[in-house]
Amino acid sequence: MKRKLLSLMLSATMVAGVLSGCGSTAATTTEAPAPETQAEVKEEAPAKADAPTESTETVEAAEEGKVLNIYAWNEEFKSRLTDHYPGYTVVDATTGTIGDVTVKWNITPSDDNAYQNNLDENLLKQESAAADDKIDIFLVEADYALKYVDTDFTAPVADFGVTDAELANQYKYTQDVMTDSNGVLKGVSWQGCPGVLIYNREAAKEVLGSDDPAEVQKAVKDWDTFSATADLMKAAGYNMTATTNDAYRVFSNNVSGKWVQDGKVVIDDNIMKWVDLSKKMADEKMTTTSDLWSDDWSKGFYPDGKVFAYFGPAWLINFCMAADVDGSIANLGGWGATEGPQGFFWGGTWICGAAGTDNPTLVGDIMRQLTCNEEIMLDIVAKDSDFVNNKPAMEKAATDDAYAFSVFGGQNPLGMFCTGAENCDLSNQSAYDQGCNEEFQRAMKNYFDGNATLDEALDIFKKAIVEKYPELTVE
User: Fold this and answer.
1) What is the CB-side half-sphere exposure of residue 5 using CA atoms within 13 A?
2) Residue 422 forms part of a structural domain
3) How far apart are the first and last CA of the chain?
4) How far apart, in whole angstroms, are the C-alpha atoms of residue 79 and residue 207?
5) Which domain holds residue 24?
6) Is 179 domain-assigned?
7) In whole angstroms, what is the distance from residue 18 CA to residue 369 CA?
8) What is the pLDDT of residues 101-136, one digit of tens each?
9) Radius of gyration of the chain (CA)
10) The pTM of the whole model exceeds 0.85
């Protein structure tokens, strides 16, 4: 019955484009585009941390499939596997090897829900697929994780030999995201995604008189103070943020209830506070109404873009903000990090083992090495400026200057991320989050641009939600 219900849900998804770290050209998608620098084929395999001997021997000894098919929406997980998994060898842009197993990457961008549509179509074929065509691993993002967690298409992590003891050091919220209604863990992540306010140090020195994180925090400690600082930034020629959508996740992560309650869409008061602040900032030219991931949004990655702050987790700055591009603020080490008005988290990528995989031992070892092996995870922090899903490792790294972020001018932000990860609360997560978040931001843009009244924009949102999710009701 569960499989039949999911089949109906997935079929509807392919027709309607249901349910989503960085993105698409769509207005508010949360997933991540593949930067050209990371899409380039490496000529040789990079250095990797050594894995435990017994783990490698287990993979080599297993009589399993000879093709490992991985489905993802961007290059982020691919870069982690190719750079850090022991024994991975690059063949070309879409192929690699691990021992005698060929790794095939099926990467479909998230634009117009294309990744999920492609994944859903192939999951429905999983039982009848030839061994070399079966999905072995697929990636999901927080906003739509629940769509896959409580189904037969995701296998329990325990089925791949990964034990509770091995997972004990992970942040609780990262497991809550992937735990089904029966309390079974269905996926794991190498990263945590608590967010901070990422600020332009030069703008802080010019306008606030200091780029010290503690001093900057005083200027953004709450939303009233944040708004007052936006006035100062405007007077100095800076936008406070690049777009109205930059602050959205801070508000949507601090709501009092789920988007959908008893089958009815509920617009939380805290999200309406985002509307009020965004309308003020848009009207007073303190920000723009550009789409996330657009060229206008990314202008602020460079000094001439004149943007004071972005809100985001580690993946945003190391994967999206042009750190490898000469002249960018990140490349110059010109960003800083502070807590901001409220704690929040954004996104994250989870590794799911597909039910029916013919490579369970290798799938389990990939999960184990990338999400439980402290040496490999610290190597990810050092080389990729990511925040990893290992509490003792991060607490230790937070006090070690060797793990400072070059994009932050030598600041070590891991202590802030540790605090944020401990406080992440997934109790208001729902399976409708991606669609509701995207449609709400898209509808409010009409209001911010002056093309609709607030009531008209709310009506646009409600009509879009009913069309996307006919089973829901709105008032």
Assistant:
1) 7
2) no
3) 32
4) 38
5) 2-192+347-397
6) yes
7) 33
8) 999 999 999 988 899 999 999 999 999 999 999 999
9) 22
10) no
